[in-house]
Design goal:
This protein is α+β, with helices and mostly antiparallel strands. The chain has two helices and 13 strands; from the N terminus they run αβββββββββββββα. It starts with a helix and ends in a 5-residue tail after the last helix. This is Lysosome-associated membrane glycoprotein 1.
Length: about 250
């Protein structure tokens, strides 16, 4: 029975290693927000998770771009009240955000304007007609919050986020961070977007992001590891019982 006990211990150790590795993988799969030097804590209370908003861009043929997501702006600026550089966080809210934009053969634009401070956030999607793939290629922000010494203007025209296939929507339930510029990053939540080939007012079949696929894979790995552990222990128990009965002779 000593050999059987050793087998059980080794199997248990290997299974626990698999479970720990799966949990660690889930932790590292989360996209971390960028770190910015010379900043302080947010000047206002953390606004929490932003509300999901539906956005539409229309042309003469109907809806040409659809997007649904919660958006959180992270902006570094010079504060009037604190007289130093601070890191501010603001959520886009449904009642104070208006959407507009334009659609062309190989690019589509979504403009989001806030009523309170007249901030303008722009997303530009580009389509590669050869590969029939699209992606978020450009993001810009113009903001003049009340506490800013001077307006903030940030842009990046060489991005490669939210990649999808023509005729399909891109979807990601997990939070993502779009690093735009040293003074700007954007957290997006529960995003689904389709910038090209929209039919009616419904998203096309969704292509899920890698983060969602990894998130679904972790429970499967852990469940399989636990099932394997139970099976190994059961087999070891049955083998042990068989050997113990074989040690006795019928007189």
């Amino acid at each position: 029975m000593t050999q059987v006990g050793g087998v059980q211990s080794r199997c248990l150790g290997v299974t626990l290693q698999l479970i720990i590795a799966a949990v660690l993988h889930q932790g590292f799969a989360t996209v971390a927000p960028p770190t910015t030097a010379h900043t302080t804590a947010p000047p206002h209370k953390d606004p929490g998770r932003p509300e999901k908003i539906n956005y539409f861009v229309n042309n003469t043929y109907g809806t040409c771009l659809m997007a649904s997501m919660g958006i959180q702006l992270n902006v570094t600026f010079s504060s009037v009240s604190q007289n130093k550089t601070v890191h501010g966080v603001m959520n886009l809210k449904p009642n104070f955000t208006k959407s507009s934009g334009s659609c062309y053969a190989t690019n589509a634009t979504l403009n989001l304007t806030t009523d309170v401070d007249k901030s303008i956030l722009t997303f530009v999607f580009s389509l590669n007609t050869t590969s029939s793939k699209y992606h978020l290629s450009e993001v810009s922000l113009s903001a003049a919050w009340p506490d800013m010494k001077e307006p903030v203007s940030a842009a990046n025209r060489s991005l490669d986020y939210l990649r999808g296939t023509l005729g399909y929507s891109y979807m990601c339930r997990e939070e993502q961070t779009l690093n735009v510029a040293p003074e700007l990053s954007i957290n997006i939540f529960q995003v689904q977007v389709q910038p090209f080939n929209v039919t009616g007012d419904q998203f096309g079949a969704a292509e899920e992001c890698q983060l969602d696929e990894d998130d679904m894979l972790i429970p499967i790995i852990v469940g399989a590891a636990l099932a394997g552990l139970v099976l190994i222990v059961l087999l070891a128990y049955l083998i042990g019982r068989k050997r113990s009965h074989a040690g006795y002779q019928t007189i």
